[in-house]
Amino acid sequence: MASFSRSGSQQTVRRPVVVTGRGYWSGRENRVEIRPAAAGEGVVFVRHDRPSPAVVPATLGSRIEATARTNLAADGVRVEMVEHLLSALAALGVDCCRVSLTADELPRLDGSSLAFVEAIDAAGVVSLGVPREPIVVRERLRVGDDEAWLEALPPRFPGLSVDYVLDYGPGPIGRQEFSIELTPDAYRRELAAARTFITLEEAGRLRAAGLGLDVSMRDLVVFSPDGPIDNPLRWPDECVRHKVLDLVGDLALAGRPIHGHVRAYRSGHRLNAELAAGLRSMDVEQAACMAG
Q1: Are 94 and 12 in contact (CB under 8 A)?
Q2: 189: which of 59, 88, 114, 179 is 20 to 30 A away, CA to CA?
Q3: Which domains does the chain have, with CATH numbers?
Q4: pTM tops 0.85, yes or no
Q5: How far apart are CA 282 and CA 189, in angstroms?
Q6: Distance CA 252, CA 83 (A)
């Protein structure tokens, strides 16, 4: 997976660490154990609730279409809602680890990546002594249309920076803008605690479909026409911060560090993955040209 730490070597967690909780949509309890891995292994999910352990790599090739989340699958085995953990791993510089699961959907926790960040910090991060090979954006790449788009530009500093514009039109969410140069400290301070949000109408549709039946208004930020219900915001612009958190996790599926400046307008998981795939392809083409 891609990492945005400035360190030049691949890294893993120093020791195993565990996070537990229930999934948003399934409600199933999941014990997530983040374990050390060797250089070059990347991030892989391992389902231990199967008759034999099943491995799902955290790569673009594993990604499957899903509504309002990022899901992966390999050989018929699924892992759901991986973006918050991938975001925390990428931002804190964990390139390689094995993530053991006892269910298919990762825990919702408080709707943010904060618990994963705290667990990774408690475990510590250690160098594997093998250099990273970042994808360096050398020319503009744009995906999307006038309604929603993403573009990657050459880096402003040795890593990833993001400018994001969220625009829900009239209403309590409205238009929000956020910019960040992504370092581990900036992520901890500015993004990790930003929570998942939906509208009251969206919440009603999910419940009608039998999803999220044990989720309360305290488990994520639900917006009525008058504002968040029974759950005060952590920042006035928490929604756009969470969108950036998701973007970091989705770009991690490129499998390599990304050094570039990303501008986003109303993008979501599908466009995030499309940009990651485009950057990976562009990098392969550039490498071929240099080799030729």
Answers
A1: yes
A2: 59
A3: 9-131 (3.30.230.20), 135-195+234-291 (3.30.1700.10)
A4: yes
A5: 32
A6: 9
On whether the CB atoms of residues 170 and 279 are closer than 8 A, the answer is no
CA 70 – CA 45 distance, rounded (Å): 14
- Return per-residue pLDDT of the chain as tens, 292 residues: 333 444 489 999 999 999 999 998 888 999 999 999 999 999 999 999 998 999 999 999 999 999 889 999 999 999 999 999 999 999 999 999 999 999 999 999 999 999 999 999 999 999 999 999 999 999 999 999 999 999 999 999 999 999 999 999 999 999 999 999 999 999 999 999 999 998 888 887 877 777 666 777 778 899 999 999 999 999 999 999 999 999 999 999 999 989 999 999 999 999 999 999 999 998 766 655 555 5
Among candidate residues 84, 242, 259, 269, the one labeled active-site is 269
